[in-house]
Amino acid sequence: MTTITLVRGDITRQTVDAIVNAANSSLLGGGGVDGAIHRRGGPAILEECRALRASRYGKGLPTGRAVATTAGELDARWVIHTVGPVHSGSEDRSELLASCYRESLRVADELGARTVAFPAISTGVYRWPMDDAARIAVETVRSARTAVEEVRFVLFDDRAYETFAARLN
Ligand code: AR6
């Protein structure tokens, strides 16, 4: 059984086995959660991301996929980088957003992670409406077959927190 918990705050301050990063396919950093994770986690994360680009993901990590690196100086063992879809008004990309949660949990299982913190993937720069993103996140985690014991959604502001809380209940 996976327990879902909600926290309002900064994902880089969490103590968990794995912190999920809302990355982009370059894996070379960016703004938002991605920038915060690389800033606080230090250069070891970027170094491993560069190595992954060189060895396995020359064309970038595809949208909906996930890959793990060290967590550097964060209070976690791993960072799991996943690439959310940019929200589109004309095309339904929900399955790709669901895939981010599923693939991140699959990678967490491979690593043996038991506690995993997720941000609200795609709801910042990638403009996914918070309520729909929360629905997809909660439904996907609830239906996932995983050995992860705690999935912690870490929401950056009150609105995101309240939206996830409403979806959870
Ligand atoms: N802790 C928790 N949540 C956060 C934090 C934090 N420290 N900082 C921001 N958020 P975004 P995306 C929330 O833009 O939409 C990057 O440049 C934020 O309020 O980080 O998936 C990447 O490199 C929002 O609700 O990710 C990509 O290019 C949520 O995290 C692109 O942005 C996600 O916002 C990915 O865009």
From TrEMBL:
All residue ranges annotated as the Macro domain in the record: 1-169
Gene3D superfamilies linked: Leucine Aminopeptidase, subunit E, domain 1
Pfam families the UniProt entry points to: Macro
InterPro entries, alphabetized: Macro_dom, Macro_dom-like
Name by which UniProt lists this protein: O-acetyl-ADP-ribose deacetylase
Organism: Streptomyces rameus
